[in-house]
Amino acid sequence: MARKLPARDVAIVGLGWTGSILANELTDAGLNVVAIERGPWRDTATHYAPNYAQDELRYRIRHELFLRPAQTTFTFRNKHGDTALPIRTWGAFMPPNGVGGGGVHWNAETWRFLPSDFVLRTHLTQRYGAPFLPADMTIQDWGVTYADLEPHYDRFEYLCGTCGTAGNLQGKIQAGGNPFEGPRSRPYPNPAQQQPFGPTLFAKAARELGYQPFPQPSGNMSQPYRNPLGVRLGPCTYCGFCEWFACANYSKASPQTTILPVLMPKRNFQLRDNSEVTRINLDPSGKRATGVTFVDTSGTEWEQPAELVILAAYTIFNVQLMLLSKVGRPYDPQSNQGVVGRNFTHQTISDCTSFFDRSKFVFNPFVSSGAIGMCIDEFNGDNFDHGPHGFVGGGYMGQVQTNGRPIETTPVPPETPKWGAEWKRAVRDNYQSTLKPGTGVHGSMYSYRDVYVDLDPTFRDRLGRPLARITMDFHDNELKQNRFLTDKFAEIFQQAGAQRVVKEYRQGPYDITKYQTTHLCGGAVMGNDPKTSALNRYLQSWDVPNLFVMGATAFPQNAGYNPTGTVGALAYWSAAAIRSQYLKNPGPLVHA
Amino acid sequence: MTLRRRDLLTGTAIALVGNRLAGAEVIAGKLPWTPDAGTPPTPVKPGPWEYFTAAEGSMVEALVDRIIPPDPQTPGGKDAGCAVFIDRQLAGGYGHHEGLYNLPPFHDGSIQQGPQSAKGPAETYRAALAALDRYCRSQTGNDAGKGFVQLAAERQDEILRGLESGKIKLEGVDGEKYFKQLLEDTQQGFFADPIYGGNRDMCAWKMIGFPGARYDYRDWVTRHNERYPHPPVSIAGRPAWTPGKG
Ligand SMILES: Cc1cc2nc3c(=O)[nH]c(=O)nc-3n(C[C@H](O)[C@H](O)[C@H](O)COP(=O)(O)OP(=O)(O)OC[C@H]3O[C@@H](n4cnc5c(N)ncnc54)[C@H](O)[C@@H]3O)c2cc1C
Ligand code: SF4
Predict the structure, then answer these.
(1) Would you say residue B24 lies in a domain?
(2) Are A432 and A362 in contact, with CB atoms under 8 Å apart?
(3) Is residue B172 in a domain?
(4) Which among A52, A265, A459 is the nearest to B41, CB-wise?
(5) Rounded to whole angstroms, how far apart are CA atoms A234 and A231?
(6) Which terminus of chain A has fewer Cβ atoms in its 10 Å neighbourhood, N or C?
(7) Residue B10's Cα: distance from chain center in Å?
């Protein structure tokens, strides 16, 4: 029997990026809020001190900051008829765990999606006609527009101190920024970071080819910054231990460095760490959440009653909790009915490794940060005419090399033996004169009828709950897109003077062992039609109106960008709707 | 005020998460802040093998010295400490799948479904090293009866190439898979911070020009195409900083 705790106004599941934003907004509204977080309390600078944070083996290779699969994992298969097997050790993505969530160890590449991304099906159908889209592609419009979200993007960027060069200020195109972006109401809060040699060389070559390169929007501070909440960040030192690592410098935007110092001391806020929510409790009608149940590390089960439940547990954990709690109708790919688990997506990443003359080029690849880099956006979204190419989607591409850490980043020409004297020589000779961005081509993955999440019939977690099962494969559209983009990307490095450019196309089948990004999206998407969306345009569950679901869970398909700028904007958008509408009149904000 | 209701919440049971003690807490009214809240790494202890037997240890030294052979500028895998690195890793959490999902059933799947073995690396090494030794000793001709360690370097390389390509089959062990794992572990040991037993004197970092655990390159961001001149630093510092400690 679960022990019952005193009721709270709001229970938030997970204290990562979105949990922190919602907790701060709803405590500001005067509500009594508890956040229940699966992992431990962690502060960035004190837990990951600069005298040992830079440990590649511990954090990058052994994944110390991440969820341990022993606690919970997923099963995976490519196709509907296959038997799914558990992900026993992380590969294709790295689920966050602990206070701050992914914000602790992300790169802080902080993008906005294109205006056309939010009305994708309408836009593509108008431009190319419906038959241009593959029959099993299930992309759809979001139910919100770029204009709706602009003020909320702005809030998230000013919270984070995002560093960048605006490309479109209130409709006026700005030199040096991304000319394809939607209009911004004001410039970035901080100037772009300075760029090391590799990105600078890439940008020069891109300009020579007629593209319009710009600095990647970054949450690694270019200068000291005080955000609107009064929290301060310090300048980034380009330490090169950023993605996968916590920042010991207070230089990377994370909940710890932007919100928690204000949230934690509030009298109407409480955090329970090392406590995993196991289900959302519903009343007998199934239409109202009564709170959540969680288990702490001693195995004790607790019930936390609440008037309002916010799921902020990261994409796939949100979906899993909805399935386990029977919120919304589970998706069935056979009948194409149901919404929870539907339109699940990831990303289509590829790369080029570019070898330069070692007597002329020294890149110092270790001088870098998680979100450093120069990019172009000519081949993202629908920024170019897809008509002749026979695919849709795209991505940004850039020299966005985040590190020169030697276990991960010692590139050698592909014909080099994998070991022995020749390998050793090639490692030595190429380290300083090779560019390897890691996620150079950041392609979209659109949604399909046969890519989804449901509950596994066989495998269970340590508590006996079914694991979430991922069914995912690449489709021709994405593979075509990737060939086209990777070829374009390689041309820029050729132009930059590389002696040799090795293209590493993304190839099928989708492989759960190969890291792409931790940009899982969808599974309980937002929209205007309850038949094809689990959440309304305010991230409110259609079925259980006192449940709001944060995160990239709501993306109907993934765009060619990193998600968190949009995740943050949606969190503020939803919080604003809760504060200005829901609290005055609790109930559905949209009547279907 | 921080309410530490450890007793109430966790009773006597405390779970181990990573290498930290983790009990659930209720935190309210305060931003918890403790200096040195994290767990610094523990440098490996020099001395005898912790996991390998003496025979296994010499065999792994011979193996890592072929994977990374010595050259006039840079030591090979053996002198760089790669075998010590692997030994300490196998004796620790890595050796027995600590933290990984290890619940049954175990079925082999497609490559893209990832490793599905119930056996941790420690067990795999034991079985593979024994099988490799048996393979070597069962050869006929000049090398009849010799173990891997006694073979000439060229012959050792030939055997490794055979394992790599799958041409040489080991009894009861997937030699190709094992070789991949050995390769990965050896190279990780070569490049990881020296506190883990490999990369002795930061030899691998010196070889490529990686400055190690330095943390501030602000002066260097815009110094383009100029070689960074400073020697590497480990998490444990540099010998010159602690004279007498080696
Ligand atoms: C290595 C890495 C690099 C990344 N880099 C970038 C980048 O450069 N740009 C970008 O846009 N995005 C990046 N991301 C993605 C980014 O981290 C996420 O988009 C973002 O953190 C999502 O916010 P969230 O609030 O939805 O989830 P999170 O921030 O992950 O927070 C979810 C929290 O919920 C907790 N939780 C989960 N389940 C439960 C449960 N059952 N009970 C209680 N608590 C639970 C988790 O422990 C976690 O703390 C990166 C991710 C990783 C892993
Ligand atoms: S690169 Fe900059 S932001 Fe990233 S961890 Fe290092 S100092 Fe922090």
Answers:
(1) no
(2) yes
(3) yes
(4) A52
(5) 10
(6) N
(7) 34
Domain ranges of chain A: 1-164+225-346+446-473+519-592, 195-215+348-443+474-508
Given a contact cutoff of 8 angstroms between Cβ atoms, the answer to whether A317 and A75 are in contact is: no
d(CA A88, CA B102): 7
Chain A CB within 8 Å of residue B246 CB: no
- List the alpha helices (DSSP H) in A181-244: 197-208
Alpha-carbon span A264 to B222, nearest angstrom: 39
Q: Which of B112, B115, B108 is nearest to A508 (CA)?
A: B112
Mean pLDDT, range B28-50, rounded to an integer: 92
Atom of ligand 1 nearest to the CA of A16: 31
pLDDT, tens digit, 9 for 90 and up, residues A109-140: 999 999 999 999 999 999 999 999 999 999 99
Question: In which domain, by residue range, is B134 found?
Answer: 54-102+115-206
Q: Looking at chain B, which runs of residues are DSSP E strands?
A: 15-17, 20-22, 26-27
* CATH class label, A1-164+225-346+446-473+519-592: alpha beta
Res. A295: pLDDT tops 90: yes
pLDDT tens digits along A338-385: 999 999 999 999 999 999 999 999 999 999 999 999 999 999 999 999
pTM of the entire structure? Answer: 0.96
Cα B209 to Cα A46, A434, B109, B163: the distances in Å are 29, 13, 41, 32
End-to-end CA distance of chain B: 47
Contact A43 B32 (CB under 8 A): yes
What CA–CA distance (Å, rounded) separates A570 from A538? 8
Compute the distance between CA of residue B142 and CA of residue B62 in angstroms, rounded to an integer: 20
Question: Is residue B134 assigned to a domain?
Answer: yes
Cα–Cα distances (Å) from A360 to A357, A434, A435, in that order, read 6, 11, 14
Token pair, residue A532, equals 């094809």
Q: Is A220 in the pocket of ligand 2 (CB under 6 A)?
A: yes
Please tell me the distance from the alpha carbon of residue A502 to that of residue A351, in angstroms, as a whole number: 9
Q: Whose CA is nearest to atom 8 of ligand 2?
A: A247
CB contact under 8 A, B216 and A237: yes
* Distance, CA of A136 to CA of A471 (rounded, Å): 15
Q: How far is CA A232 from CA A42, A107, A117, A189, A267, in A?
A: 18, 19, 33, 13, 22
Tally helices (H) and strands (E) across chain A.
11, 25
Q: For the residues of A530-563, what is the DSSP string, one character each? A: TTT-SB-TTSBBSS-TTEEE-SGGG-SSB-SS-S
Centre of ligand 1 to C-alpha A95, Å, is: 7
Backbone phi and psi for residue B163, each to the nearest 5 degrees, phi listed first? -65, -45
| % of chain A at pLDDT higher than 90 | 98
**Chain A closest-CA separation from residue B206 CA (Å):** 9
| A233 Cβ closer than 6 Å to some ligand 2 atom | no
- Side-chain-side CA neighbours of A592 within 13 Å: the count stands at 18
Q: Which of A44, A163, A216, A252 to mutate to test the pocket of ligand 2 (most atoms within 8 A of CB)?
A: A252
Tens digits of residue pLDDT in A22-41? 999 999 999 999 999 999 99
Cα separation, A492 vs A494, in Å, equals 5
A264 at the B interface (CB within 8 A)? Answer: yes
- For residue B9, being part of any structural domain is answered with no
Total number of domains constituting chain B: 1
Pairing mode, if any, of strands A301-311 and A547-549?
Answer: parallel
Residue written as tokens 């004279």?
Answer: B243
At A137-157, the pLDDT tens digits run 999 999 999 999 999 999 999
Say how many C-beta atoms besides its own lie within 10 A of residue A507's C-beta. Answer: 13
Residue A282 corresponds to which amino acid?
L
